[in-house]
Amino acid sequence: MKKKFKCEVDCAACAAKIETVISKLEGVEEVSVNFLTQKFTLAASDEHFEEILRRAIEKAKKVEPDFAVYA
Predict the structure, then answer these.
(1) pLDDT by residue for the chain (71 residues), tens digit each?
(2) CATH class (in words) of the domain with range 2-70
(3) What whole-number distance in Å separates Cα of residue 24 and Cα of residue 28?
(4) Total-model pTM
């Protein structure tokens, strides 16, 4: 499953760091954080998507505490 979300990220460097951290999570097939458009895209298996999304957001907040994802 691949879903796009609105997000809040403060700078392009933070977006790149967040992508790197999330891409290392087990089950993540693809991740993109776009600073200019404030979009977050995550691809992961359907059956574990919500759990992977939750873990991805937790990891991102450790890199950038202001990171937020909106449905």
Answers:
(1) 999 999 999 999 999 999 999 999 999 999 999 999 999 999 999 999 999 999 999 999 999 999 999 97
(2) alpha beta
(3) 7
(4) 0.93
